UniProtKB/TrEMBL annotation, chains A, B:
UniProt KW keywords: Acyltransferase, Cytoplasm, Lipid biosynthesis, Lipid metabolism, Phospholipid biosynthesis, Phospholipid metabolism, Transferase
Pathway of action: Lipid metabolism; phospholipid metabolism
Protein name per its UniProtKB record: Phosphate acyltransferase
Gene3D superfamilies: Isopropylmalate Dehydrogenase
Protein family according to the UniProt entry: Belongs to the PlsX family.
Subcellular location(s) per record: Cytoplasm
Keyword hit for Isomerase: no
NCBIfam families: plsX (TIGR00182)
């Protein structure tokens, strides 16, 4: 039986989306239990139609909620009765093995670091963002923002943790691991990237060497490792240009009656593309390297998106990701 | 009279595109002279229809050509009879004030550094890439790849040089200068970014603070400064996702007869978007901070694109960019 603690109060559409997504996950996986953490009087009424899974679902009352506007570290330290902090406590106490939250990214990161702590041997935990690729797959980009000033050895560890996730959760047999760089030649890169490259050549990973950021959406590697500053820049640049292109499309396609007719005909195709290239459709962002399977769902997660994030956490437990990261990083 | 040295042999479509682009620039600007540097026997026949501007165009013979496959620094040092090296020599000797090349980026950078040298007071020259924005404008991103390990003070200088270019060449009266970061809050960022932020607050620039990479294509700043690693990652990430989206569009729009009909109707609109968001349509990449106006045109420049790059160099001379950078950086 896998047990997941769900921060039922975090996210733009909480608690409806978190409760509904959790109930759907329970229906999908018979060996799953969920501890729904939040204000009991708000959560209980949402479970009226969940009688079929009610025996595997427990409400854990927590009175406070962490907002996006407060200091994540302070909130995690001081708001001991916040739904997110209680959820972390459940994992720490061993009552759950995984945590899913659509709340503040900073608070989830701080909670992972200070409430759970690092897996032995892990220098720095990392956020691993799945990026949709043109071919319909995904590339795992990490670190995508947790660690800004990185040593090369940390980046090499991100690569190793990413490879474990790709293998155990995404089912990629021998994941191709790339190092984000500004050119493919070995002598390229900043200090930390060159250090990481030298270390990665010595591992047993399927290391494909340096990759440029354009390789990420083209799917030229299954895992792309980098420091959290570069990773976040890549992520936000892709988000920005995608938004810009779709904004322009909307403008151009409503420009005259000819394009409006054309737009009506191609609309389903455009919707498919938008859906395929939308990172949020793939699921949440796992935090790798902490003592528990932690998944940060997108802040604006619908019930369906939250279900995907719970599924990711479930698969991390199925794939034994935490233990395998521990044993692989100890081998070095 | 402005004099520009053109590396006539660099680029995928040289020398046809470089010669044709140069001739068009001469027709556009009556006070422009061009020194066309390259193999005379290849260049002369291309000037048959250029009688109207022939008196402002001189061929400077150079026998060698630098390819993309050789070490840029070695090539610049050793191939003294290469068209690019001769062109740099013309600027250094004062026979020209600007240089335009569609050849190897590395060689143009090495030439700028070693053949021209830095403007007094400039710590590191930078590549400034104009990025098209959704609104039809452009954001100048620098450094976009020349300097990977940066001190904060260098990044602050990039911002200052970029602001001079935006004002003098792009005609932006009081350019909004942003600092590329992974969040807008002041405490965010890696070491060099925080250092740069502290310095930029003390300048007379119209400093809008930290901006995320998504602000670049959205046009939320006229100039975005960063280290060359982050800048290159942003650039390549945007290129990659744009290519991925257009590849998907092509697939989806030829999927069935309905979408094919729609595609025929929206094709001109899509072409306009592609054109607008194509960095190459805007022109080349100026190298700021060296003793001369240097513009790196795209390797696959057509005659029209090469003309744009020559026009940029001309505007840099008109706007007195080199002198203004010298005087502004000395004020600090």
């Amino acid at each position: 039986m896998h047990i997941i603690a769900v921060d039922a109060m975090g996210g733009d559409h909480a608690p409806q989306s978190t409760v509904q997504g959790s109930v759907e996950a329970l229906r999908a996986y018979g060996d799953l239990r969920i501890l729904l953490v939040g204000q009991e009087e708000k959560l209980a009424p949402l479970l009226q139609d969940a009688g079929d899974v009610r025996d595997r679902l427990e409400i854990v009352d927590a009175r406070e909620v962490i907002s996006n506007n407060e200091s994540p570290v302070m909130a995690i330290r001081q708001k001991t009765d916040a739904s997110l902090v209680r959820a972390f406590a459940l994992v720490r106490e061993g009552r759950a093995q995984a945590l899913v939250s659509a709340g503040s990214t900073g608070a989830v990161m701080a909670g992972g670091m200070f409430r759970l702590g690092r897996i032995e041997g892990v220098e720095r935990p990392a956020l691993a963002t799945p990026i949709p690729t043109a071919g319909g797959g995904q590339t795992l980009l990490l670190d995508s923002g947790a660690n800004v000033d990185c040593q090369g050895a940390w980046i090499a560890q991100f690569a190793r943790m990413g490879a474990v996730y790709a293998r155990q959760v995404l089912g990629v047999t021998n994941p191709r691991v790339g190092l984000l760089n500004i050119g493919e030649e070995e002598e390229k890169g900043n200090r930390q990237t060159k250090e990481a490259g030298a270390l990665l050549k010595e591992t047993g990973l399927n290391f494909v060497g340096n990759v440029e950021a354009r390789a990420i959406p083209m799917g030229e590697a299954d895992v792309v490792a980098c420091d959290g500053f570069a990773g976040n820049v890549a992520l936000k640049a892709m988000e920005g240009i995608t938004k810009a292109l779709f904004d322009l499309l909307r403008q151009e396609l409503t420009a005259n009656s000819r394009t409006k007719l054309g737009a009506a005909l191609v609309k389903p195709a455009l919707r498919r593309i938008k859906k395929r290239m939308n990172a949020e459709e793939i699921g949440g962002v796992p935090m790798l390297g902490v003592l528990g399977a932690v998944v940060k769902a997108h802040g604006n997660s619908s019930a369906k998106a939250f279900f995907s994030a719970v599924r990711q956490a479930y698969r991390m437990l199925e794939g034994n990701v935490t233990d395998i990261i521990r044993s692989e990083l100890q081998d070095v």
